[in-house]
Amino acid sequence: MDRVTDIERKTLTIINNMSQLHRIPTIDDLCQKTGRGKQRLLPVIEQLAHDRKVKILNAKQVIMLPLPRWYERELEEKARQTNIDL
Q1: More confident residue, 2 or 56
Q2: Do residues 49 and 15 touch, judged by C-beta distance below 8 A?
Q3: Exposure of 48 by Cβ count < 10 A (0-12 exposed, 13-18 middle, 19+ buried)?
């Protein structure tokens, strides 16, 4: 069984809750909501990404894996718009 630390569980819960509100949390959001600084939180996020529980979208945003359906729809819509523009 895959064991997670308390801070990993808390971080996953925050990411999941924000995802349900159709929001992609930023690193700053996670720092604020966990009460941890970036230096303490970034290794946690990197471990979760390594374990394929989250995906780091860019230097500022983190999303749950598997990707939420609403996020996949947004990606599909952007792809359609890009193909139309060509």
Answers
A1: 56
A2: no
A3: buried
26 beta partners:
61
| CA–CA dist 26, 83 (Å, integer) | 29
Per-residue pLDDT reduced to its tens digit, 20-35: 999 999 999 999 999 9
Encoding tokens for residue 47? Answer: 């471990």
How far, in Å, CA of 67 to CA of 3, rounded? 21
Q: Residue type for 7, please?
A: I
Q: What is the dihedral of CA 18, 23, 24, 25, to 10 degrees?
A: -50
Q: What is the pLDDT of residues 30-70, one digit of tens each?
A: 999 999 999 999 999 999 999 999 999 988 999 888 888 88
CA dihedral 27, 32, 35, 37 (to 10 degrees): 40
This prediction's pTM = 0.81
